Amino acid sequence: MKLRHYIPELDFSAVSSWITDERTHAMWCANRFSFPLTQENFGAVLHEHAIKSGECPFVATTDSGRTIGFFCISVNTETDAAMLKFVVLSPTIRGMGFGQEMIGLAVKYAFGLAGADTVWLCVFAENTAARMCYESVGFTEISRNRNAFTYKDETWGRCNMEIRKENI
After folding, report:
1. What's the whole-number average pLDDT of the chain?
2. 3-state secondary structure the chain
3. Residue range 109-149, pLDDT digits in tens
4. Engineering a disulfide at 139: which of 51, 65, 83, 134 sits with its beta carbon 3.0 to 4.6 angstroms away?
5. pLDDT, tens only, 67-108
6. Which pTM value belongs to this model?
7. Cβ neighbours of 148 (radius 10 Å)
């Protein structure tokens, strides 16, 4: 697996094909993007986040170049804390260790090239598979906000998780 910067012309069609229903979409991005995803809205929101917090979008690819994962990362240079957002994998490879590998590479990038001391993320408590993936990489839950997000007739809690450079 390799990481590289997201290139809309190469990657949008793959990323957009992974989110096929509204609930999965809400679980992934808390409705920060429109559903269904459009290249214009996706690009505009990514640009807004880049300007606001320096967030950079990345993709994970197979060794042959097929796009299989996506995430964004930003680093707060005052606190040396990196934040992962919008993590998603192709549904055809979920549950096979690719998510763990992608998050592991993202953490190595944050601790290495980006100079972070801590990497943190938020995940809905109900997203058990994602939480287990993050825990397998070494993330631990540091807090939980109950009733943080409402989707239709469901209310989801939000887990804040982190991994510290000194603990790996």
Report:
1. 97
2. CEEEECCHHHHHHHHHHCCCCHHHHHHHHCCCCCCCCCHHHHHHHHHHHHHHHCCEEEEEECCCCCEEEEEEEEEECCCCEEEEEEEEECHHHCCCCHHHHHHHHHHHHHHCCCCCCEEEEEEECCCHHHHHHHHHHCCEEEEEEEEEEEECCEEEEEEEEEEEHHHC
3. 999 999 999 999 999 999 999 999 999 999 999 999 999 99
4. 134
5. 999 999 999 999 999 999 999 999 999 999 999 999 999 999
6. 0.96
7. 16
Six-digit token string for 81: 């804390």
CA distances from 165 to 100, 123, 128, 141 (A): 17, 20, 24, 15
Q: Which of 109, 31, 35 is nearest to 72 (CA)?
A: 109
Q: Please say whether the beta carbons of 91 and 43 come within 8 A.
A: no
- Given CA atoms 54, 107, 123, 86 in this order, what sign does their dihedral have? positive
36-71 exposure pattern, b = at least 16 Cβ within 10 A, e = fewer:
ebeeeebeebbeebeeeeebbbbbbbeeeeebbbbb
Report the alpha-carbon distance of residue 128 to residue 134 in Å, rounded: 10
